[in-house]
Amino acid sequence: MGRFIALEGIEGSGKTLQLKLLSEEFKRRNIPIVVTREPGGTPFGSRLRRVLLESQGPSREAEAELLLYLADRFQHLAEVIEPALQQGRTVLCDRYHAATLAYQGYARGIGFSRVDELARPLRIRMPDLTLILDLEVESGLARARRRNAVEGNQTWGRFEAETMRFHRRVREGYRLLAQRDPDRISLVDGSGNPQATLKKLLAELVEKGLIG
């Protein structure tokens, strides 16, 4: 059975870059991997991603948004994650269930317990380890703005365009999750340069016995 690792963080935390650096490190160590993301890890998820993340998309109730994320996750597990784990591959996922708890459960005000209640019948597999890149909200959003400027993207996604209070609640939600389940969820300082952050992530993976 392979190992399942999720990478999380607020907007601009550097997840996508760190996922790339981690995948390169795993390949260097000859560890077979599958790199995926949520939403959008399947053809079904790619369609949902446009609905969920478009800043100009239609309004929706918080619980409706939550249910869409859970539907994406259920399909993602069946189509990508579980088969890869059964093949002995390590799965690296850009966002997973902790994001739903932090964004919809905490920042949207639905509550962790309500997310747990709706997810329980789906028997959603939890990662062996969730790594949360933690940094000040102002720093993360500044990074996101610079990234969008470099890429020529003038339209922020739905979550990037939220209020500062919302983003602070997301960060607080992530920190609460790490307190709730310290054996499987680790906060990693993401404020440094990419190589320094990568070293911290690898140290956590070694400590948890996920790499040698």
Fold and architecture overview:
The protein has eight helices and five strands. It has 212 residues and is an alpha/beta fold. The protein has a five-stranded parallel beta sheet with strand order 2-3-1-4-5, with helices on both faces. The protein is globular and about 45 Å long. The protein starts with a strand and ends in a 5-residue tail after the last helix. 38% of the residues are buried.
On the 0 to 100 scale, the average pLDDT is 91
- Using only C-alpha atoms, the radius of gyration works out to 16 Å
Q: What spatial order of strands do you see in the largest sheet?
A: 2-3-1-4-5
Measured as a percent range, the helix fraction is 40-55%
Number of helical runs? 8
Write the H/E string, N to C.
EHEHHEHHEHHEH
The percent range for strand residues is 5-15%
Overall geometry: globular
Which residues form runs of ≥5 with pLDDT under 50? none
Give me the secondary-structure category.
Answer: alpha/beta
Number of strands: 5
**Oligomeric nature of the chains:** single chain
Distance between the termini: 16 Å
Q: Major sheet: size, sense and barrel closure?
A: 5 strands, parallel
Brief summary of the model shown:
This protein is α/β, with parallel strands linked by helices. The protein contains eight helices and five strands; from the N terminus they run βαβααβααβααβα.
